[in-house]
Amino acid sequence: MEKSYPEALRNIEKAKNKQVKAQNKIRPITEEKIQIGTKVWISIKGIQNKLHPKYRGPFTVIGLTKIDNYIVEDALKNISFHGSD
């Protein structure tokens, strides 16, 4: 019993590191910020038809919020989106 607890902790830590490594491959962490004035395309979520467009745009980035969301300029209104989208 005394040997199994530290071994279990090591196995949990090993599994956690493996999961973090796998997730970082799927969605790498980027420290780069999109510059104001850059043209961007925004991913459209929840598309059902494969013939519909997957992105909207191009939009111009006009600002950045405190929580790392970007504000883009649209013809009708300003849109805020997260950088990972």
TrEMBL record:
Superkingdom, natural source: Eukaryota
Name recorded for this polypeptide: Uncharacterized protein
Species in which this protein is naturally found: Brachionus plicatilis (Marine rotifer)
